[in-house]
Amino acid sequence: MTSDRQAPTTPTTPIIPITRSGHAVVLGAGVGGLLAARVLTEHFERVSVLDRDNLADLADLADLAELADVSPAELGARRGVPQAGHLHALMDRGRQILEDLHPGLVAELVDAGAPTSEALVGGRWYLQGRRVGPVPTGLTSVLASRPLLERELRRRTAALPGVRVLARTAVVGLVGAAPGGAVTGVRIRAGDGDGAPTVLAAELVVDASGRNSRTLDWLAAAGHPTPPTSRVTVDLGYASRLYRRRPEHLDGDLSVIIATTPGLRGGGAAAVEGDRWIVTLAGLLGEHPPTDHDGFCAFARRLVAPDIADLIHAATPLGDAVPYRFRESVRRHFEALRRPPDGLVVIGDALCSFNPLYAQGMTVAAQQALVLRDCLRSGLGGGLPGRFYRAVGPVNDVAWDMAASSDLRYPAVTGRRTLRGRVTGSYAARAQRSAHRDPAVARTLMRVVHLTEPPAALLRPALAARVLVPGAVGGRARPAPHGPS
Length: 485
Ligand SMILES: Cc1cc2nc3c(=O)[nH]c(=O)nc-3n(C[C@H](O)[C@H](O)[C@H](O)COP(=O)(O)OP(=O)(O)OC[C@H]3O[C@@H](n4cnc5c(N)ncnc54)[C@H](O)[C@@H]3O)c2cc1C
Prior knowledge:
Distance between the termini: 35 Å
Low-confidence stretches: 5-18, 58-65, 474-485
Bound molecules: flavin-adenine dinucleotide
Strand content: 15-25%
Mean pLDDT: 89
Number of strands: 18
Number of helices: 14
Shape: globular
Structural class: alpha/beta
């Protein structure tokens, strides 16, 4: 069961089917833009992916695994994706979609050195201060760095018929955005940005330019209403550092995640290509990890479990730690607009940017790409953008509600608190406690977190009984095998 497409698309006007013709433009060659481009190739003869960064920096590297002594900043260095130097976990649903859209991609990542593991067996997961037991979940973790994943995805996308990826090409405005009209292209500035912008015409423009997308400003300037926006302010700080990996580290396990709950601090370490660890420390509500060596180690030492501190004590650092500050999750409700502008679809972080602690962003961007594919199969007419936003709403709801209900349990986090959110948050906390005792709950909880099953899976009567009445079902309760009690 998947959580991707939960709402039927209900077109209001006749639909004009298309066979591959015309031109689509994608703003941004991040994960969201590249996946959108892939589905657009099924409908458009030509697809142009524009990015203002110099993508050649990464594309030219023959083998990222050969880069031994680089810091996360150097490894992921490109202005447009500053988050690339931090741990990027790909949820299993995201892995499935990437493999569906690009068969063989996972094998290529593995060939490039990315380890894989069963989510809870090869990886350690601490929830509420205790380790969840090594239960088989049927989930695969692909432990690639974000730059490697993006490089392989970009290479695959650029090789598709009709696709061109244009680096150092900044989009500086939309064409034809006046209310009642349709967006018919973008204004671009190539190279160093000197000279007048030129126009690139397109039948469809997809904005995947990330959290700092300027589309809302451009639409507002053209006279469009601004869609309502949800925000959850978490004031999260990250610090990440690479380390040389040896097989004996973590007793051979490939990852460890220490969730922030019940405190404000957490962290993660994952074995990535090139025999390296990427170690990310995180703190909510201003409890930000320092980037200097001593401060970084001391922060790790204060986590609820010692695994990360022990790992970085034993491993040799490669380069310095780099910071990232994430103030708030932001969701733009284009579905609430009576007439979203035609010819324009907003996707990825530009549409919905999630607290990175829950590692949902790339997977939700992949789910959104599938929704776009479904909508395009009904053609460009019938108000494609409106159909897309209505269909993608439930996909965004799942991830947003999980993250927001967890974040909003901290009184100092600001955002809209609802009764449903409180009930969800409190049930999820019970399920987490139950996961320490009950392998069936642990398995389903993990599958929900990986977006392979909907949250409702945790409410199935047999499972709900185990969550709500610990030990009541078949005497399966057992103590947590690891971690402080
Ligand atoms: C610190 C951090 C950690 C994260 N960890 C995870 C994780 O563990 N797992 C996970 O799934 N997700 C994670 N995410 C989220 C993930 O990075 C994004 O959700 C995902 O990359 C999809 O983003 P996107 O493609 O929409 O935008 P981005 O990846 O931000 O890409 C936007 C692209 O648009 C380009 N661009 C911007 N403006 C213009 C313009 N005007 N003209 C041309 N190009 C432009 C930029 O150069 C960039 O290449 C994390 C995010 C952060 C901040």
